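Checklist before submission:
- one chain only
- standard amino acids only
- sequence pasted in full

Submission:
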Amino acid sequence: MAPPIKRRAAANDAPPSKKPHTKAAAGSSARDTKDKKLRGELRRREQQFRSSAAAVRDSEQLRGEVGGFLEAEGELERTYKVTQRELARNVDVAAARQSWSLPLTEAAPYAVRYSRNGRHLLLAGQRGHLAMLDALRTDVVMELNLGESLHDACFLHNETLLATAQEKYVYIYDSSGAEIHCIRQHIEPHRLQFLPYHFLLASIGNAGWLKYHDVSVGTLVAEHRTKLGACNCMAQNPQNAVVQLGHANGVVTMWTPAMSTPLVRMLCHRGPVLALAIDQQGQYMASSGLDGQLKVWDLRTYKVLHSYTPPTPAMSLDISQRGLLAVGCASRVQMWKDSLGTKSRKPYLECAVPSGAQTHAVQFRPFEDSLVFGHSRGVNSVVVPGAGEPNYDAFEANPFQSRQQRREAEVVSLLDKLAPETIALSSVVGTVDRAPAELIREQRELSEEANAEKGERVQKERRKMRGRSKLAVKLKRKRKNVIDAQTLQLRRKLDEEKHQKQESAEAKGQNETPVALRRFTTASK
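Returned file contents:
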């Protein structure tokens, strides 16, 4: 029998340890050594090891999740040929539950709108059917039949309140379906947008008036006449809260409450604008028109980057949190990946709507890999890998918030509400002023001086009664302290007359005989 093969010592193998000479080197802690200096060094090392282990533990807990996309194995495989059944079989149970279908033909077509945290879904049927679903538990929260046409619906600051654009006015309902308020200033609305950081509800309708309503105090902030006729296309820039409108002449306009004229006018299409979508960073805008073109614009330069030609004119557009573009055509829904900064050659995923149906609205679910679209036969939801942001900020939008957290978030958002005047193309809210400290101090002093001068109280005249406050008396009192050329000439004349009188009086006093000596003058005569 051959002897066992001895393993060669590798270059990185540690040398055999020598027998410790001291008890401190072989001890388990610093308390076992008698050397004071060595004991302090060992204690510092142990403290460093404990802090390093705690830092590693915290980094593992705070490590963000990485979102993954669907990738093809070979050059001949196409991701848009993967069906929803194949995706449902190969994803986890929670993601597979995002693929569902609701056949609703009586009130179709449907407009769909998710809440900011993606927890609740709002379905607005064009024939008056309104429903709110809990997307996490997949159950119905509220359902109404309004009895009139319903054009659009959106959530307000949270899922407890929602606004609807009905046939004549804008109505506000709560989560139980009770009507809270009817806003009669918004006449014949078609589209709604809610600005969460300003608590403003914006609407555009058949009359062509863009109106902003502050829902926190219930007042109409601004109303602008677009002068471009009826409008059926509206979008909001999440970065600066600028509202963008698409008109029938192919022009896209950008509006703020403080300006009665559009900030920017862009000629985007040769026909009516059908849909608009803006990414989360506010850098790119996608627009579709009746001319059959789908264009991607750079909002920093207001120039077109590239264009696509869908099979039919896109009726609805949406951009996910991670940059996927959803295009709702007549009989299909396409999802494009990396199509904003660069031009894509083929779609990422593609889904067919039920036979004979026409797509009406599409929207990605926040913080989830799913897309919901409403069509003329109901509502469908499909799985889109890599669409949602995997890491969410609980202070901004929490999909799993409790009632107490929702109430606290509502109070904080009301306290941090921004004024309508802060809406601008280049917003300075949340940015850092990198100017030198001396320049900032000088500007602050100038602004304080200007405010102090502006804040000085103007002393008002007291109103006197019984004929003392007549117009002539007021004018005379006002002219009392006014010094002009005529006043100076009159004062000079009065001074001269007074001086002449004094001289004549002095001369007369010298010529006259005193009264006590007059009797002697008479006797001598």
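Reviewer check: The two ends are 185 Å apart (CA to CA).
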